[in-house]
């Protein structure tokens, strides 16, 4: 497995993004969380999210799990992370929350989940956004009120409908991959500021670290947010 992660504050003073790359069994567990609620609360919430899902998923995993069992374990890990954030949302951290997207890749099978607008992409020669944003703009796209290609320029693009610590819900996805294909998890500081064509061009880099660095470097040219890219070449 070839995988890498790059996370930077960008033009912000603090980096409220957190990420995870962890070997579980013979698979790889990946995640990106984008904290909400300001520096003190946002980075705490995203940190709780990735540490909790890692602990819960790692402890619950066993060899020979089928896809349905992995999906249920991932949902449970998200629920536990949500509960942990709510439990810690007191005092100056009151109201804190975070987005979260996670994927477990084992034997070419990907089981993934998300809440909020951090994303999961799959590249197999062309780029496909797997996860669906839980956001106001995505609702407008779904209703046909705005063109998808203009969604990332919408002035209300940062308003999300669901998050850990907030109005919580979780969606799941499963798909198969082949050797050489790429999995990308990103925070909105990356995918809201880079064209799909640019992402596809960078996917041709020779290794996961070059892809992650290239994506972050290109995003930095225009991004106003923290930027995180977690990349795996299957």
Tell me what the structure shows:
The chain is α+β, with helices and mostly antiparallel strands. The protein has a single domain, classed as 4-Layer Sandwich (Phosphatase 2c, domain 1). Helix content is 32%, strand content 29%. It has 6 helices and 11 strands. The chain has helices at residues 39-60, 67-88, 136-142, 188-191, 196-202, 208-220; strands at 2-8, 17-24, 27-36, 97-98, 100-106, 109-115, 119-123, 127-129, 171-176, 182-186, 227-233. Strands 2, 3, 4, 5, 6 and 9 form a 6-stranded antiparallel sheet that branches. It has a 5-stranded antiparallel sheet with strand order 1-11-10-7-8. A hairpin with a 3-residue loop joins strand 7 and strand 8 (127-129). The radius of gyration is 16 Å and the shape is globular.
